[in-house]
Structures are given as C-alpha cells and as structure tokens.
C-alpha cells in the first residue's frame, strides 16, 4: 500500500458507504445458474452464492449484480420471467434469497437485482389469463395483441423480425381451439412484450420494485430499458419502412423508432425514481439501453435511473485512439448530466474480452465469425488475449465511475467457443440457425477447483459442458499464486478502493501508442498499446498487469503509479 502521506486516501469502508456508494463501485455480475451449485443438480443456485460470499469479499468488489433468479422455464436463461416476486425453485427460496442478501451485506457488498420489464415469459399468470380471455379483454390489454392480416388473419400484423431471428409476432390458439390473434415479442416467442400504455402494468412493476427494495435490494439493473414504450398506431410500418436502427451505440439519434428508445419511456423511470428515493439510501438503477450515445444521458439522469451502461469500450478494439475518445466523451457526458460513468468489457451477452482480444483477424468484430467457424480454442492467442484483457481491466479500474465485471473474468477465463449443438441453450442459436451461435460460451459454469466433478462447480455436473482446459483457470489453481489473474484482480480492486478519488481524470499522454492519465490524488495509470517499451513516470509502480522489462512498460501492459 502507498503511504497515506503521499495520497489522499479514503478508507476502504468509506468507498462503499453513504448514498453515493454506486458512483464508483466495482460491480460483479453473477449469472446465477453458472456460478456455484450447492445441491449437485447441475444448476448454480442462491445457496451456492451465499457459500461464496467470502470469495467475493476477498475479491474486493463493492456490489453484486445478480442476473434473473426468478421462476423461469429458461427459454432465455431466466430473462423470461414467470413471476417477478419470487425465486426460481431450481435456484432456491425467498428465505435463501434473504440469507444471501444478509450474507452479502454483512460482508459490505451491495446487491443489484436484474429487472426485466419489457416482457414476461409466456408462463406468467397474466399471459395465461390473456390466452384464456377473449379478444379485446382487459387481460389481453396487458400485452400487445393484434389481429392478423390476410383472409383469415393468418398473416402477422407486420413483417418485423425478432431480435433473436424469426418473426416478432406469434399466433395464438384461442380458448375455443381456433387459430386467433397474434402477440408481439421483440425477443423469443416465450417472451411476450408488455403493453406499457396499460396503467396496470406500470403499477405492477412499482409493486415489484418495492417488493425487492423492502427485502434489502440496493439497486436494479434494468433489462432492455429502452424498449418499454412503443408507438404501435395503425397502420404498422413494414420492416422496410422502419428507421434504420444501427447497432449498439449507433442507434437512432432522434427517438423516432416505433419501439426503441422513445422519449416517453422516461416518464416510467421518473416514477421509479420517486419510489427509489423513498428509501435510505435511495435505491440505485442502471439502464441496459443500446441507444445512440447522444441519448444515453437521459436514462442516466438523476431524475431517471441514475446510470446507464456504456458499452462503447466493450465494442471497441484494443486501440488507444478508440479508448481515448470513448473515455473522454463518456466522462464529459457524465459530468454534464450528474451521472457517473459506467465501464464494462464482458457480460453474459458477449464473447469474453480475454478471448476477443486474442482472436485472429477475420474473426468478426466481436468474435461472431470465429464462433460460426467452430469457435476452436486453438485459433485464439490466449496469451495475447489475456495480456490485453488484464491491461484493459486495469485501465478501467483506474477510471472515474463504476466498473462492471463479469464472473470468471477475474480468473482470466476464456470463452468456450466450441459447444455441441445438442448442448446449446441460447434461443439466439435456435432461432437464427447458422447465423447466430449464441451466448452460451460465456455462460459455462465457473471452475472453482482444477480437479473433481465439474471443477468444483457442484457435485453433479454442469448444465453447460466445461472443457478440460478450464482446470488451468480454476480458483484453486490461482489462489495465492503470485501474478495469477485472480491475485492480480484482488490487488487491483484493493488498491482501487483505497485510491478512489474525485470523478476526474487528466490526460498526461494520449497518442496512438500510450494512454497515460492521472486522477486528482496523483494516482496514475499508463497503458502501452504500441509495440515498443514505454518509459514510466517518476513515482512508485504499485501494480502492473504484466511484468515490466528493465523498469519499462512493455506492450499490452498497464501500470499504476503513485
Ligand atoms: C438483455 C439481456 C439478454 C436478454 C435480453 C432479453 O439484452 O442482457 O441476456 O436475452 O435482454 O431479455
Ligand atoms: Ca443447484
């Protein structure tokens, strides 16, 4: 640890207490089915998480973001929710949830729950009621039902595609056994979209948010936050008439799309904010909103959710210019709105960054082509990928704002590219044959031990097959091993907590090969994106993502200096 005389240190505990705990938190995403299995049924569960709280505490995170744990048939890994105010019996009970929350809190770790408001599952009570009720009924008005076109209504109301491929409309069989109306689903057909024009839907989500807030949940991650409000006035435009969405941060700048990022969605979040602010400390929220960068701030405003994911770094190559402009732009945006920035490289929807950075040219920007070509592990330069991933993560941990980590990245875990078709689970794979291989490769259960059944994940196998090479990434192979990725993350997070300072950054050097910045308390981060060795500034090197060479910073490496 650097001496307190040279730095303006905040106490370790101070970093996560107070109403602003979220502004610069290190948040660890747990995908519960793949984290730790306590009862040997092959599926991770809440008791498994509780048992690993000491691990999470030793890692040094401030909060856990828990992906959906609600009753679900897992048509989309739990993002198809049957009941918003309960725990999936496969994962445990509400009592287990309370126990887990208490254990996290006792360890000084906050809990962020994933809320999925755009759609329920097709097994939700309301959807079952809608199917049983007649056309035009109040039960149908909670979802988006329309008559079909054509002679017998056999043609979907529009030719829109769903996100996972295939049509965005599904025809139902009416209670009398005849083919009937169609319902809209932006994602899988097991995920019918709610009608957010319906006050009952709005009321019910407030009840859900209150339910979990009362149980001690500290914040919420809002799934597809930008899709809730839709303009479905007739006639519906055809696919060809829809404004071009673009992808990710290239979404529309004007909110004119009929179902993405409409201005009125913010009315919902203003209501949520009022509820959140009734708690002490106020509940926090972060929007998952793949919108045009110029429109992200609205989700993150203090009158709205407070924070929004910024996926820009996750979508960028390991490139100094790209990183610099993304960082500068996002910090300016955060400052202008009063939000704090968010940073993320990996989550349950993308190829792990230790793999992305080690893929050969022609693998597709985010590894999609590599996956389509079979996802062979031998095609990946894992050493390069991991070196860059560690350098990128260390840079991220020094940035003002909150850092989101995905389970397993602290182990340097690689994507499992190669999974037998018969073992795959992601609807994106099934709905879009040959085009989308899906996201199962980052959802393979974690290796805790280098030997034993399912590498210590549980006693009864793993719901997605773990490759043999997982052994080398296991927690027990890295714990107390100097320079292992796990020990590196632990050190980085510990220093980060001690060094955290005002949400500002000053560039010292930013060119095509080096990004060097400092924080107001003198904490400096230098990353070498180029090919030569880089001279480090005066001061003490407290941590580096890889070994220095003769005191200099080699390529694909980050160092912290105080
Ligand atoms: C979000 C989730 C993703 C899910 C989708 C539909 O993008 O991150 O995993 O499939 O929403 O709920
Ligand atoms: Ca289990």
Number of helices: 15
Radius of gyration (CA) equals 23 Å
Uncertain regions spanning at least 5 consecutive residues:
1-15
Bound molecules: alpha-D-glucopyranose, calcium ion
| Relative strand content | 5-15%
How widely separated are the two ends? 10 Å
> What is the mean pLDDT?
94
- Sheet bearing the most strands, described? 8 strands, parallel
Strand order of the largest sheet: 9-8-7-3-2-1-11-10
Question: What oligomeric assembly is this protein in?
Answer: single chain
Describe the global form.
globular
Question: Structural class of the helix and strand makeup?
Answer: alpha/beta
Q: What topology does this entry show?
A:
Layout: E1 26-30, H1 46-51, H2 53-59, E2 63-66, H3 94-106, E3 110-115, H4 125-132, E4 145-146, E5 169-173, E6 179-184, H5 199-214, E7 219-222, H6 265-276, E8 284-287, H7 293-300, E9 306-308, H8 312-315, H9 320-337, E10 342-344, H10 353-356, H11 368-372, H12 382-398, E11 402-406, H13 427-431, H14 475-478, H15 485-499, E12 506-510, E13 514-518, E14 524-528, E15 541-544, E16 557-561
Parallel strand pairs: 1-2, 1-11, 2-3, 3-7, 7-8, 8-9, 10-11
Antiparallel strand pairs: 4-6, 5-6, 12-13, 13-14, 14-16, 15-16
Helix pairs in contact: 5-6, 12-15
The structure holds alpha-D-glucopyranose and calcium ion.
């Amino acid at each position: 640890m650097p001496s307190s005389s040279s730095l303006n240190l905040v106490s370790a505990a101070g970093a996560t207490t107070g109403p602003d705990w979220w502004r610069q938190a290190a948040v660890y995403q747990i995908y519960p089915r793949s984290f730790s299995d306590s009862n040997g049924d092959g599926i991770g569960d809440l008791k498994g998480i509780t048992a690993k709280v000491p691990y999470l505490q030793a890692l040094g995170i401030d909060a856990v973001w828990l992906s959906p744990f609600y009753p679900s048939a897992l048509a989309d890994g739990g993002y198809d929710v049957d009941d918003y105010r309960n725990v999936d019996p496969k994962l445990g009970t509400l009592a287990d949830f309370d126990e887990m929350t208490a254990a996290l809190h006792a360890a000084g770790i906050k809990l962020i729950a994933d809320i999925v408001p755009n759609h329920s599952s097709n097994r939700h009570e309301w959807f079952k009621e809608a199917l049983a009720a007649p056309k035009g009924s109040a039960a149908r008005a909670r979802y988006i039902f329309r008559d079909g076109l054509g002679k017998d209504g056999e043609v979907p109301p529009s030719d829109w595609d769903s996100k996972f491929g295939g049509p965005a409309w599904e025809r139902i069989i009416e209670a009398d056994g005849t083919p009937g109306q169609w319902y809209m689903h932006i994602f899988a057909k097991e995920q019918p979209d709610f009608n957010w024009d319906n006050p009952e839907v709005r009321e019910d989500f407030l009840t859900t948010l209150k339910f979990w807030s009362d149980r001690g949940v500290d914040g919420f991650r809002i799934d597809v936050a930008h899709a809730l409000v839709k303009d479905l006035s007739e006639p519906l435009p055809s696919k060809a008439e829809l404004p071009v969405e673009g992808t990710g941060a290239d979404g529309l700048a004007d909110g004119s799309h009929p179902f993405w990022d409409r201005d009125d969605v913010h009315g919902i979040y203003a209501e949520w904010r009022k509820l959140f602010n009734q708690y002490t400390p106020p509940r926090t929220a972060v929007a998952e909103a793949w919108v045009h960068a110029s429109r992200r701030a609205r989700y993150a405003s203090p009158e709205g959710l407070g924070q929004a994911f910024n996926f820009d770094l996750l979508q960028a190559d390991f490139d100094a210019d790209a990183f610099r402009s993304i960082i500068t732009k996002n910090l300016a945006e955060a400052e202008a709105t009063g939000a704090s920035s968010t940073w993320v490289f990996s989550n349950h929807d993308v190829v792990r960054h230790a793999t992305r950075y080690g893929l050969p040219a022609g693998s597709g920007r985010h590894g999609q082509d590599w996956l389509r070509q079979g996802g062979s592990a031998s095609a990946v330069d894992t050493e390069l990928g991991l070196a860059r991933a560690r350098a990128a993560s260390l840079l991220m941990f020094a940035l003002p704002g909150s850092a989101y980590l995905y389970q397993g990245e602290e182990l340097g875990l690689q994507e499992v590219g190669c999974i037998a078709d018969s073992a795959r689970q992601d609807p994106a794979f099934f709905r879009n044959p040959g085009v989308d291989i899906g996201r199962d490769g980052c959802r393979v259960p974690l290796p805790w031990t280098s030997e034993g059944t399912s590498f210590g994940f549980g006693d009864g196998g793993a719901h997605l097959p773990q490759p043999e090479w997982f052994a080398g990434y296991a927690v027990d192979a890295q714990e107390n091993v100097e320079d292992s990725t796990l020990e590196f993350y632990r050190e980085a997070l510990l220093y980060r907590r001690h060094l955290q300072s005002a949400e500002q950054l000053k560039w010292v050097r930013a060119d095509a090969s080096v990004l060097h910045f400092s924080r107001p308390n003198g904490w400096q981060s230098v990353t070498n994106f180029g090919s030569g060795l880089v001279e480090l500034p005066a001061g003490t090197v407290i941590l580096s993502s890889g070994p220095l060479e003769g005191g200099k910073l080699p390529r694909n490496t980050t160092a912290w200096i105080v």
